[in-house]
Amino acid sequence: MNYQDIVNYDRQHVWHPCTQEKDHEALPPIPIERGEGVYLIDKAGRRYIDGVSSWWVNLFGHTHPRLNRALTEQAGRIAHHIFAGFTHEPAVDLARRLCALTPGNLSKVFFADNGSAAVEVALKMSFQYWQQHGKPNKTRFVSLTEAYHGETVGALSVGGCDLYRQVYQPMLLDTFQAQGPDCFRCPYGLHRDSCDAPCFEHLEKLVTESQEEIAAVIVEPLIQGAAGMRIYPPVYLRKLRVLCDTCQVHYIADEIAVGFGRTGKMFANEHAGVAPDLMCLSKGITGGYMPLSVTLATEDIYQAFYDDYETLKAFLHSHSYTGNVLACALAVEVLNIFKEEQVLANLAPKMALLDRYAARFEALPHVGEFRRCGMVAAVEMVADRRGRVPYPWQERRGYQVYQQALKQGALLRPLGNVVYFMPPLTIEEPVLEELLEIALKGIVEVTSEE
Ligand SMILES: *Cc1c(COP(=O)(O)O)cnc(C)c1O
């Protein structure tokens, strides 16, 4: 098929994620033929810097020689086999190493194949734990406003982004929602670098009052991604850990987006020095090669399910592709690369480069804030800077920047009025600089008509 054939057949038969398909009338989907490092290359040979790691999954660039080798070597042995009653070395190796790498005493790994499923697993594990642990009234979950934990029905129930959940509201679980941190528009007039997270009071009050009903609190540590890369300080997580201990509530850390080095440390909870009871990982876990997710649990949680068959305490959750061996082999190689190529140590100059651009972005009259956490940075555009007044969402300013950036050879997906950077960790500084320049230019063009 040539470029146009692909576009035409796509328009006839394909339904894309997170897309109003009618937008494709003006901007048809771009057929990608191959990838090379941080570049996506389309069927016409045009190159795009993958500034969002292809939806936050890619860590070391596309067609990475070591990952390609790990994949083909494993495919030469076997691609998939049943994981109930059978096991394999890549899963065991991965599980062992993840338990050692993650904070605290997480000692058991449950496999699934996407982030939403990992969240469903964590919710079900917590729920069933309390059923089997003498506290059957602890059935409800707490999440934060603007949270994002995936889009299957359970995961959506603990989400807080109206955009994704409003229409499905009648289908969703009855959950508690607490006002979360909003550092850019801090109601206390504080700054995230120096505050003590007084905004934690909302969550504290809710959990304290309803602890008898609550199974778990789920949060995205340090960065509420889909909310527009809202960044909040580690002290919030420290308070959360204390609260969960005091009230006998599980702390579920959804590190699906922030895990695997995105925040500058392997896992975001390390910034706070705390450990969750359940932890969800996916996205970067295979370097962006294959769908895979894991839910890690403490020994205490695992033991609540461990008994004679007749007690019917087992965790009866499964997916056809549970523990897929190709994905596990890739994930093992990802951990090898982290270790052998000093990936985290090499991030410092890139994070410094991102910081240097803060002043450039914030000098623009319609940029409200440039914020950064590790290798994630975001620019929030505002109609009026002094009042931090957002542009009306219907104007789709972020989407306009996305279109401008594409013309200049970069993929920068927007989140409302926010344009963010989440490049592969291995992006070279000159390319990162080019990406930032493209974003600057795009934002100037999209915000300077007044
Ligand atoms: C992407 C994401 C999910 C959902 O993962 P999927 O693989 O898209 O189902 C859940 N939580 C967070 C924080 C995410 O970023």
UniProtKB/TrEMBL annotation:
Pathway: Cofactor biosynthesis; biotin biosynthesis; 7,8-diaminononanoate from 8-amino-7-oxononanoate (SAM route): step 1/1
GO biological process: biotin biosynthetic process
Gene3D superfamilies to which the protein is assigned, alphabetical: Aspartate Aminotransferase, domain 1, Type I PLP-dependent aspartate aminotransferase-like (Major domain)
Keyword S-adenosyl-L-methionine: yes
Subcellular localization(s) per the UniProt record: Cytoplasm
Cofactor(s), by name: pyridoxal 5'-phosphate
Site positions for Participates in the substrate recognition with KAPA and in a stacking interaction with the adenine ring of SAM: 18
Enzyme class: transferase
GO MF annotation: an example: adenosylmethionine-8-amino-7-oxononanoate transaminase activity
Quaternary state and interactors: Homodimer.
The family this protein is said to belong to: Belongs to the class-III pyridoxal-phosphate-dependent aminotransferase family. BioA subfamily.
Protein name: Adenosylmethionine-8-amino-7-oxononanoate aminotransferase
Organism of derivation: Syntrophotalea acetylenivorans
Lineage: Bacteria, Pseudomonadati, Thermodesulfobacteriota, Desulfuromonadia, Desulfuromonadales
